[in-house]
Description:
Helix content is 44%, strand content 18%. The chain has helices at residues 12-19, 37-48, 75-88, 129-143, 152-158, 163-174, 182-196, 200-209, 239-242, 248-271, and strands spanning 2-8, 26-30, 58-64, 96-101, 108-114, 213-218, 225-232, 235-238. The strands form 2 sheets. It has a 5-stranded antiparallel sheet with strand order 1-3-5-4-2, with helices on both faces. Strands 6-7-8 form a 3-stranded antiparallel sheet.
Amino acid sequence: MIPKIKTGKDFSGVLQYALKEEKQGEILDKNMLGETPRQLDKEFRMVADSNTRAEKKMKHFMLSFADQDRDNLNPEKMKHISREFLKGMGYKDNQFVTVRHTDNGHEHLHMIVNRINTDKRKAVKDGREKYHGSRIARQLEKKYGLTITPSQKQEQEKRPESKEEKELKKRLADEPKPTQTDKEAIREIVRKAMKEGRDMPEVVKKIRTSGVDVKISGSKDGKKVTGWKFGYKGREYKASTIDRGLGWNKVKKEVEGEKQAQKQQNSKGMKL
């Protein structure tokens, strides 16, 4: 059983590939409601967008079984294998969909997984995944009586890239980059305003001029600001859901602290 691992930003391209009609892809297992690539992509992004720190949130695991194991496999066994593999890799609390392919003559699985877990909205750490993937594959082969296969590196050295692997690589390379999300657009506008504004009133003005509404909340007497929200395309977002570093006090400190430092530096320059 050969595991292969890819990480990316876009769920849509891999989902469309795995479930396209010519591949005769069969959804073997999932913990999501969606059935189509579009439905699943939307569901993945609802969770992925809640984390603004991680850049690459899509994980794609491929498990290829040895040809001689064909008679020793069935959907239920492959389902257990895929779940145990994901759990071993640290993705037991994450959205996933597992698709079974048999189109190129041998059994293999595509597991599309959200790196952002559904509980704490944190990205699973994925260091040394190739090593861990091979180790877990060996354990599962022994547990389920499958053929013990060489490591991914050894396998790649002795056999050329398959037609399907070439097709998938080309598909992912040609896939257009995902469009900017609303949250990313807001974050970009706010960050730009922070660089250009001399103080918070000017930052707020520049944000509004760029098409993002700003709602400021504070004490009843209006003397103390406690936070702000952003309105964009008919929806309202708390600053913390856009970026944890965009809270009112953090932005105020960054903007006005930086400008004050610049004034002091200019003042010293004039005295010299």
